[in-house]
Amino acid sequence: MYIRIYLLEFRVYILISGCIFFTFPALIIVNPTVLAVDRKAMFSMSGINGSVIFSQTAAGKPTTIRVDLDGINETLSWAIHEIPMIYNGNAAFTCNPDAVGDVYNPLEKMTGCSQSQKVNCAYGDLEGKFGSLNVSSKSSSFIDSNLPLTGYYSISGRTLVLSNGDKPKACALITVLSAKMSTAVAVLKGPIAGTIYLRQEAMNEDTSVFVKLFFVSNATTNVTYGWRITSKKVGDDFSISERCQNAGQTFNPKSVQKSECTTINQQECAVGDLTQKHKNISVGSASIPSFQAAFTDTNLQLAGNDSVIGRSLVIYNLNNQAEAIACADIKIIKPRQAVAVFKAETDDSVEGNFTFIQDSPFDITTTIVNLKGLAGKAEGYHVHNYMNPIYNKVNGSEACSNNIAGGHWNPFDIVASRSPPAGTGTVHI
């Protein structure tokens, strides 16, 4: 049996007629041949469940948008925002503009436009193009001639947000329909700190790039830098300046020249020339907004001979490209996994396990349930605040009482009555 949930914390407590404490292991850390293309946004937030599917018969063709959502009982605006969401509690935390950026508008077209002005609308302004979503339109189809699913202006890897006025109601990541994504990350520790994520469905497909950085010094204004992927691994053995000097040259396996390199002609770019393919990075201090941006790279591989895995990402001085400011190795993110084990002798005859697996911070968590000894009862199960005090020889129903286990783990104060009802979710038996 599989149940899809989000992984919220490292310290969790399970109750199914018995209980157990468990911990997580450490985290290890333009395609011209595209034919039919599909992307999905799967919703499970604020009582709204279902999907919005984006489809093209071929790259460059009009996009069909199929809305199939339950739980809409009011009029909601909808828009695609530029930054990929990472689940961080309820919609107020996860779906606000600070987290997911502005409405996606790479060509700086009109926002707040009308349906008669579709061709002049921002790519992400779905309300302006098609009107609001409500009870009558929660299962609908629309055709959009200006909503690319591949290439530099692709909406893949961005966030679809449903809002009530200025307040976000729910959001979902726009991603591939069925295949799993490979996710890599470069973690920068200083003097520019933060993460740069790279996500790709398969070799020769587009790669989504998500950047979130800040300066750890006391800088009071933003400073602009270049960024590139270099040929060598820098490791962690030396100081930042020593490591970055060993990063090598810009990664350019095809030895292309950048004279014809542009954001929409990335095949003429060196693979690692992120400045030329995208834009400069403008980074300020931690006391002012950090730099975050999302790009689609049509010329960057996470597998094969030209893979960037095991190479390094370098931020450098635009006035002196030999001066590296910060650097980090690019590493594949491996799935994070946790397990809760029940033993019949201590857990009221229930034995088996829960296994929780999350492929990356952008992915939902799959829960695999394997239990026996429930005596034909379908009991509820919950995550509680505190660890199982088995070291004090407290177990069974005593250990699972609220006095010891605490209340339900709810760090974001979600109102249970507004959550999806019991039994909601994807289950495979």
Description:
The chain is mainly beta. Helix content is 7%, strand content 36%. It is built from seven helices and 23 strands. It has helices at residues 91-94, 97-100, 126-130, 240-245, 274-277, 396-399, 402-405; strands at 2-5, 12-15, 19-22, 37-45, 48-56, 63-70, 77-81, 139-144, 159-164, 167-176, 182-189, 192-200, 207-215, 223-230, 281-283, 291-297, 312-317, 320-332, 336-342, 351-358, 365-372, 382-383, 427-428. Strands 15-14-17-18-11-12-13-16 form an eight-stranded antiparallel sheet. A hairpin with a 2-residue loop joins strand 9 (159-164) and strand 10 (167-176). The chain is globular and about 70 Å long. Residues 1-34 have low confidence and may be disordered.
For the CA atoms, what is the radius of gyration?
24 Å
Point out poorly predicted stretches.
Answer: 1-34
- The SSE order reads EEEEEEEHHHEEEEEEEHHEEEEEEEEHHE
The average pLDDT score comes to: 82
Distance linking N and C termini: 5 Å
Shape: globular
Task: Provide the fold topology.
Elements: E1 2-5, E2 12-15, E3 19-22, E4 37-45, E5 48-56, E6 63-70, E7 77-81, H1 91-94, H2 97-100, H3 126-130, E8 139-144, E9 159-164, E10 167-176, E11 182-189, E12 192-200, E13 207-215, E14 223-230, H4 240-245, H5 274-277, E15 281-283, E16 291-297, E17 312-317, E18 320-332, E19 336-342, E20 351-358, E21 365-372, E22 382-383, H6 396-399, H7 402-405, E23 427-428
Antiparallel strand pairs: 1-21, 1-23, 2-3, 2-22, 4-5, 4-10, 5-6, 6-8, 7-9, 9-10, 11-12, 11-18, 12-13, 13-16, 14-15, 14-17, 17-18, 19-20, 20-21
